[in-house]
Fold:
Amino acid sequence: MIAALKRSVLIWPAMLLIVALYLVPSFDVIRSSLFDPDLTTRHIDRLIDRPVFMTVFWRTVQTSLIVAFAGALIAWPVAYFINAQPRRSQFLLIFLIFIPLWMSVLIRSYAWLVVLGRDGVVNSAMLGMGLTTEPVQMLFTPAAVQLAMLQILLPIQIVTTYGAMTEIDLDLMRAARILGARQGQALRRVFIPLSFDGAMTGMIIAFMLSMGFFITPALLGGPRDRMLGNLIEVQVAQLNWGFASALGLLLLFGTLGCVIVLRFCGRMALRVLK
Amino acid sequence: MDRQRTLGSVLLSAWFWLIVVFMVFPIFVIIPLSFGSGDLLQFPPQQYGLRWYHAYINDPLWMQATWLSFKIALISGVIATITGTMAVIALERHLGRSRVAFTYLITSPIIVPHIFIALGIFIFALRNGLSGSQMLLIGAHAMVALPFVVLIIGASYRQIDPTIERAARVLGAGPMRAFMVATFPSLMPAGVAAFVFAFFVSFDELIIAQFLLKGTETLPMRIWANLQLDISPTVAAVASLLIVVTTVAMAGAEILRRRATQKLAD
Amino acid sequence: MQRLLRTTAVGVTASMLMSAAVSADTLVLSTSGGVVAEATMKYFVPAFEKETGWKVQQVSAEGTRMAEIEAMVRAGNPVWDVSEISASNYPIGVQRGLLEEVNYELVDPEGLLPEIARAKYGVVTASYSTVLMQNTAKSPEGKLMTTWADFWDTETFPGPRSLREGPEYNLEFALLADGVAIDDLYTVLATPEGIDRAFDKLGEIRESIPVWWTSGAQSVQLLTDGEVIYATNYNGRASAMVKAGIPISIMWNGGALHTTYLGIVKGTKNLEAAHAYLRVRATNTESQREYLNFLPYPGSAPGLLESLPQEVAEQLPTYPANLAGQYVANEEFWAANIEALRERWDEWLLE
Structure:
């Protein structure tokens, strides 16, 4: 790696940021907690001994997978649509996609309270139409959390997928059609494999971000919908740095492991597609 | 076959607009909330008025926080986009076998809880007498945004046909010029998207700012302080104003651009 | 490109050297921000500045406060001099050695403060309560709960309710509902059977609790939106809802009384000025009375309660009628047991 660094000056500024503001500081936190005062495996043991943490971890993985996968399926046609427009309108459509980002995550969660609540828009409509006689509990369910997370993460998935699509040579599609492929075939054989990388990247970003969520599950989820981020918050509030960083390490390595598996599955899927 | 195609594109555009509505619907809740005149977020508001817009515009704390956030997001967004683009080129061209390791390293801040990064940088700042430094916060935000830039631009970069740049080199262009002419234009859309994303990563970031800044506040810090004691509709007014202002600015820029091209055509 | 790199590096180094330094004779004070900061700036800071000639720089911190103090103390460079310390943070601060011992010769030389306000590592500046709030418009036939046993009675009082997410004070509420007397609360909780009993009791009600709140603001929102009819909260939150036309009634009986502190960060260079600020904040009756117009969290300044109009006084947690049914939350108990109880709580919630 050192030799590689010498070869490429271009990566130095990025490495400066990463080393000075991320590696050194994170190391400091982990060290000060693992060696407190001497090297101890107490926190790691606790993590392994009590089932609750692993249960929450797996639920976090599950929720993140659902959100990232659903997001990828939703985002792909949206990105395709934008990419099919004339260049100038593309810019405006992307701007549209970015509008929700001006609203802080907190206030967007309140919007969901208004929509899904017992006195909320959906329940009032259903009561009014006689679809139900009692308000349906929609808030504080896994579905509410997933819906809200999807809403927050969709912009980045759409934009990543779109960014990769812009570089696909549409002549390839035309060529395939001239050579007798039907629209669907050309799409499946040429366009989808070529745009796969972007969609996969978008899905992985969304997955990684979901793993660290804590505000949305706290505001819109029930007691069983809490995620690893919520447990870390609680430990930090009590100044349990040791255990909090043990949970952080679980989050870090768990996510990395999942990403490796996801990438592998992605490559397999691509091979099947081709 | 053509009928099939039109049906397909109608469905596609319907899907697009459906998803846009899904993403922007909070506006339809937040804008009415912002015109409420009560002390609490109540939907629908009991009385309407401009009380919270006045509160926002006339409160120097809110205004300073907004400008500070803009400034920090802009600078850190530019830094992240430039360093990230350079990193992508290095990763794809020069690093060979170490590419995977470096990619994981550079993108890993995404999954580290911000609270860890925040605490680490805070300790670093205290040791070096940098507590309260806005530059340090800008650097931290650029670092947090770097993974997004690298991922977004990287996905786009891998689709670019390298032969064009090679052709430019063969035709006698220097490496910098060949890159600017052949590859750079193709990276622009992804570059803009990455910058906008980096901007928002910083604009929405609370925890690191809370640890680093003393005496001054960013917008998320102001919103957070406000939510701690009283959830006042100022928060809704801020969001509505930001959306309206940027939409008007964007529409204005578009109209100006169209006029300019029309004049040229005349 | 090389040149660009070099310029960037120089620029970054230069700006890092320009970090702001706090000038001498400025006391750095950490408060909760928002209304608290506003009221502090208006009523306490001028009195202090006039008396001592020092300036005050206020910083707002809430969620990250203790983490920041710990990092400062460990780094040996306390940036703050004085900080508000919440009830639940006080024992943590003491255990970790983050606070200076208060010298009451300087803070309260005439002995005007009641003994309960003179804590060893911080002076008590305010009292507040975790109490049950009920939306009387939604409660069946406007009936009101008067005891924690009522909260558990889902026949008479059906409908969704909410408690804070965490074992603190909820275990006490459960034991009170189960018939334990206030004086025995912490002796019962000190035994494993007592803790089992509290968790079992909470198990009876959990199906009626769709959501456990994590911030006072969230609890307000749940009551405002009609998402729940009954929810605990900090007493000061009620007035905003009442003003917005939501009929909220506070059940003082069985509430948990907390005290908040003003502490001096360990290792501060401005020890004397810090003590002077503590004195002004804790003993200035006039400023404390004005402060109550902003927030119903009374201090212990001499003669404060007596000098208030009736309608203000009866909103306060320390008003005799309100005080009667409350228990004093034992923060030492919580600091000592929170780790184990939190873990059990997390497991219990997931069951």
